[in-house]
Amino acid sequence: MSKDHILTLSCPDRRGIVHAVTGVLAQNDMTVLDLQQFSDPDLSKFFMRVHFGHADDTRHLDAPFQELAQDLKMDYEIVPKSHKPKVLIMVSKIGHCLNDLLYRQKSQQLQIDIPLIVSNHPEFESLAKSYGIAFHHLPVTKDSKAEQEGQILDLVKQHNVDLIVLARYMQVLSPKLCEAMSGKIINIHHSFLPSFKGAKPYHQAYDRGVKIIGASAHFVTADLDEGPIIEQRTARVDHSMSPKELVDEGSNLESQCLAAAVKWWSERRVFLNGHRTVVF
């Protein structure tokens, strides 16, 4: 696996893309181990993910792929399959998603590095320390928001962070931060659809007698909770369940949904496609 690589690409759709890409790999003695593709008929855009091997490095592929990229107007990237992206986790006072991500990373279910955790509250400093992860308590008020987000961006640069995960971080990010990390922030929303916003969403759902609850993991944009959706999970509920039971079931869904989104992103399976995503 250390000699395997992942190629991801997107470009305007046309005939012969798969043939051209796999042809370059074949001509350079590479073996295609897995290939997934999608052509969006609405936007006439093509997406592809290729798992190929076996090479100690891929520098000899630079020239042919740069030439192909120019011809196809293609954006592409090649990374080792063993590469672990660096993920900054942000959290407030609700810790189930944070705890789940830390356990999955520790048990190697998630192939990511977590160099630091940022929170606007101090509650989870001991949890971070138990995993040997740096914890940064950055309180925020309306007047200090710009300064606090500047500190976050400084930490992103300092630690070469690839992705920010909002694990129930209960602050609205500014358009400036959303733009600076566009396509690199994933949030978990405590609803299958954003029907119950604000405080105590599961209590609102209970009062309305819902039959399905769920969670949505999505990319963050300046439009609150409206970013492209990566994954959604649901569970059936009924009249016999209390608000606490809904909260417990919802917490499980949120943890599972966010972990799946982070896993797929880390494996380079998630592509932005306008207001939607392509997930292989």
Automatic annotation (TrEMBL):
Transmembrane segments: none annotated. Residues 6-83 form the ACT domain. CDD domains: ACT_F4HF-DF, FMT_core_Formyl-FH4-Hydrolase_C. The lineage of its organism: Eukaryota, Fungi, Dikarya, Ascomycota, Pezizomycotina. Pfam families: ACT, Formyl_trans_N. PANTHER family: FORMYLTETRAHYDROFOLATE DEFORMYLASE (PTHR42706), FORMYLTETRAHYDROFOLATE DEFORMYLASE 2, MITOCHONDRIAL (PTHR42706:SF1). Keywords: Hydrolase, One-carbon metabolism. One of its GO terms (molecular function) is formyltetrahydrofolate deformylase activity. This is ACT domain-containing protein. One of its GO terms (biological process) is amino acid metabolic process. It comes from the Eukaryota. It comes from Baudoinia panamericana (strain UAMH 10762) (Angels' share fungus).
